[in-house]
Amino acid sequence: MMSDATNQLVVVKIGSNVLVDDAGVLDKDFIADISAQLCRVIDAGWRVVLVTSGAVAAGMSRLGLSSRPSDLPSLQAAASAGQAAVIETYAEALLAHGRPCGQILLTRGDTADRSSYLNARNTMERLIEMGAIPIVNENDTVTIGGVAETFGDNDMLGAVIAALMGANLYVILSDVEGLYTKDPSKDADARLIPEVHEVTDDILSLAGGAGSEVGTGGMATKVRAGRAMLTAGIPMVVCKGRCPSVLVDLIVEGHHHGTRFTSDSMNSESARKLWIGLAGISKGRLVVDDGAASALRKGGGSLLPVGVVSVQGAFEAGDIVSVVDSSGSLVGRGFCRYDCEELEKARGLRLEVIGRFLPERAGQPCIHRDEMLVF
Question: What is the pLDDT of residue 66?
Answer without folding.
Answer: 82
